[in-house]
Amino acid sequence: MTKKRVLSGVQPTGNLHIGNYLGAIRNWVELQPDYDNFFCVVDLHAITVPHNPATLARDTYTIAALYLACGIDLKYSTIFVQSHVTAHSELAWLLNCVTPLNWLERMIQFKEKAVKQGENVSVGLLDYPILMAADILLYDADQVPVGEDQKQHLELTRDIAIRVNDKFAAEDKPIFKIPDPLIRKEGARIMSLADGTKKMSKSDPSELSRISLLDTPDDIKKKIKKCKTDPIMGLNFADDRPECNNLLGLYGILTGKSKEEVTLECSDMGWGKFKPLLTDATINALTPIQTKYQEIMADKTYLDSVLKEGKEKAENVANITLKRVKNALGYLVINS
Ligand code: TYM
Question: Do residues 36 and 2 touch, judged by C-beta distance below 8 A?
């Protein structure tokens, strides 16, 4: 039996934080033996907000190396760079022309990011979810493992796929497969260390708001020491304690303990006792990833070969889908 397909991606905008890891990549690693997986570094998405050309290529390497360091295994998975497979941009254009503008204007992430950009907001930022739909639909993905914040983009992807099928496909031959989001309850929304009501984010100006996968033990210690807490005695998962919820949740995921186990262990603790435990759990989880990352980054020839092979495998799948779409849309195709 052929395996179902998974596709997902991360933007090469600076370092990855533990939200990206726990909300997305950790799940990719767990799922990968049961699926045929494509993981891309979405460098075209990275320029939808002002970017630095001097660091884009380096950041792209960093993310690819982190995929491997976190446990993505080439036996099960293909790693590639989005801009290396031109079908992504081409399908995005075709989808642009069949998607109503007001579907994009409704996107929460666009509205939030647009406020931050002010006058400088680009057309690319509005178009971001269409490119994401192209990423997913090109690979006939069955499942798309992402964090909670991407749910609306996945719904849009499904709506676009259904619209294209309705408009252009013969009844028994859909053009696109309709993908499902795969959002795990635990870790789907890791919150900022500075404010338990705000999502941990790469774009937060404060480094203290997030733990990056490549933070040193000293950085981690400092960030957890300074993170926001509350003055209530005893620690528990309570709806009106956002910081406590987030930090206990993080501790549970990083140590593999259930909510009940964490509650039992921590209910009589104060922050002074809990914070060193969370610090150790974080350092223990990140140290092996960092060691492997350093090894991989020291061998660029290897990393290039991974990305070259990934490009070829991805192109083989993506070009077939693109051809199917162009045929359905009525493009003139000449045999070469
Ligand atoms: P990016 O780079 O912003 O985020 C990468 C992944 O990390 C998840 N994530 C979080 N999960 C839990 N808690 C958080 N605080 C947190 N912050 C981020 C995101 O949900 C995401 O899964 N648009 C995508 C990139 C993309 C993509 C795709 C994903 C482009 N094309 C196709 C899937 C399929 C994004 O958010 O990247």
Answer: yes
How many residues comprise the chain? Answer: 336
Nearest to 111 by CA among 125, 124, 95, 99: 125
Told to judge if 259 belongs to the known catalytic residues of this protein, a careful annotator would answer: no
Q: What is the pLDDT of residue 80?
A: 98
Question: What is the rounded average pLDDT for all residues in the chain?
Answer: 95
With CA atoms as reference, report the closest residue to 164 among 333, 321, 332, 6.
321
**Following CA atoms 111, 116, 120, 121 in sequence, which dihedral angle do they give, to the nearest 10 degrees?**
-20
Q: Give dist(CA 65, CA 63) in Å, integer.
A: 5
199 lines ligand 1 (CB under 6 A): yes
**Of 80, 149, 200, which is best to mutate to test ligand 1, by the most ligand atoms within 8 angstroms of its C-beta?**
149
| C-beta of residue 308 within 8 angstroms of C-beta of residue 84 | no
Expressed in angstroms and rounded, the spacing between residue 173 Cα and the centre of ligand 1 is 31
Beta strand extents in the chain (DSSP E only): 4-10, 35-41, 77-81, 143-145, 180-182
Centre of ligand 1 from the C-alpha of residue 21, in Å = 10
Q: How confident is the model at residue 185 (pLDDT cuts 50, 70, 90)?
A: confident
User: Does position 220 have pLDDT exceeding 90, yes or no?
Assistant: yes
The question of whether 75 is a catalytic residue gets the answer no
Residues 6+ apart with CB under 8 A from 124: 47, 48
- Distance between CA atoms of 206 and 146, rounded to whole angstroms? 24
At 2, the amino acid letter reads T
User: Does ligand 1 come within 6 angstroms of the Cβ of 132?
Assistant: yes
Residue 15 pLDDT:
80
* Nearest partner of 193 among 128, 279, 109, 120, judged by Cα: 279
| Pocket flag, ligand 1, residue 48 (CB < 6 Å) | no
